Amino acid sequence: MNTAYDAVALYSGGLDSILAVKVVEEQGLRVKCLHCVSPFFGKPSLAPHWRDIYGLDIAVLDVSEAFVRMLTARPAYGFGKVLNPCVDCKILMLRQARVQMNRYGASFIISGEVLGQRPMSQRRDSLNAIRRDAAVRDVLLRPLSAQLLDPTPMELSGLVDRRRLHDIAGRGRKKQMALAEYFRLAEIPTPAGGCRLAERENARRYWPVLRHAPHPTAAEFRLADTGRQYWAGEHWLSVGRNSRDNDALLRCAFPEDAVFDLPDFPGPLAVGRQFVDWEPAVLRDAAAFTASFAPKAVRAGREVTVRVTRGSPRGELLCECAVLPDRDTPLGWGISSWSEVREKIRTEAGDAAQSDEG
Ligand code: SF4
């Protein structure tokens, strides 16, 4: 493996991460940027563009499965305002970066974190906890706030010149904008955003997966991101809103899933994730519900045929049912509102605290 790198950097594509790398590169050090991706964040398709406009050396690092394992086990530091486990996320990424540091023969890790910029993950105590829990105490450099933090071994040894690092703190962007101008950045990324876990609508989609999927994987969250989402107890149904969704749902379907299709009418395709095989009555209920999203089937005013197959419309036929399209079936398909999800997260966190105390 290449040993020409001095450092690896957590590179989100945000302004802080670009500047943190530029500040270190300016000292003549060579940096490999790691762009972490998962179903929840990351824009790997932009990596070539970033290489072109910023002249950065970027590798895409898929952290999906480790991230989903952390979510499933629940983040030790809890969730932020929505379903964003920011402190645990930083710890996880830094752990992954440490592995990559060794792989690239680098001797330290760069992070664009700024002291006091975010309420949950960038307070001084959080920054210290992140550094400790990720086991990167001796190798983590935060160039943008370094002069406000204790000197690191890289500064003490002279590998990095502390005087050329920065003292940026807080939520303002003035100093970052000045640095962006200094480095003549061709594009200034807009602030933050881009993490699906921080958006309520997505949290509504993801939470039931975390609650009900026996062993969630990244693939489950990709399915949760697609089409309309409905749950009836532990039964999960994803319904396409248009032909693009239908195609995407088929790409997400597992071979054992139940695929619902109306052969005689244009309209949705639906995927039922079978953690265990669904009872015939459940398949029939979901078939009637799926048919209710096909306007022409509803207007027909009679029973319509829904084919249920395994894995794809060409898969094993599980049943072919004649059903009346019905949005209000006995199983009561639905999805929790954000306030209901928030309440469940709080209850779960409370239960965990009580059992910790016990
Ligand atoms: S907003 Fe999302 S990507 Fe950013 S630190 Fe939090 S969990 Fe991680």
CATH class value of the largest domain: Alpha Beta
Strand order of the largest sheet: 6-7-9-8-10-11
Strand proportion: 5-15%
Q: Any idea what the CATH superfamily of the largest domain is called? A: HUPs
Please work out how many helical segments DSSP would assign. 13
How is this structure best described in words?
The chain has helices spanning 15-25, 47-54, 64-73, 86-103, 124-133, 153-156, 174-182, 200-212, 218-224, 243-252, 280-291, 295-300, 338-357; strands at residues 7-10, 31-37, 58-62, 108-110, 140-141, 228-232, 235-239, 258-261, 270-273, 304-310, 317-323. It has 358 residues and is of the alpha/beta class. It folds into two domains: 7-195, HUPs (Rossmann fold, 3-Layer(aba) Sandwich); 199-323, no CATH class. The strands form two sheets. Strands 6-7-9-8-10-11 form a six-stranded antiparallel beta sheet, sandwiched between helices. Strand 1, helix 1 (15-25) and strand 2 (31-37) form a beta-alpha-beta unit. Helix 4 (86-103) packs across helix 5 (124-133). The longest helix is centred in the C-terminal third of the chain and has 20 residues, at 338-357. The radius of gyration is 24 Å and the shape is elongated. It binds iron/sulfur cluster (SF4).
Short description:
39% of the residues lie in helices and 15% in strands. The chain is of the alpha/beta class. The relative contact order is 0.10.
Tell me the layout of helices and strands.
Layout: E1 7-10, H1 15-25, E2 31-37, H2 47-54, E3 58-62, H3 64-73, H4 86-103, E4 108-110, H5 124-133, E5 140-141, H6 153-156, H7 174-182, H8 200-212, H9 218-224, E6 228-232, E7 235-239, H10 243-252, E8 258-261, E9 270-273, H11 280-291, H12 295-300, E10 304-310, E11 317-323, H13 338-357
Parallel strand pairs: 1-2, 1-4, 2-3, 4-5
Antiparallel strand pairs: 6-7, 7-9, 8-9, 8-10, 10-11
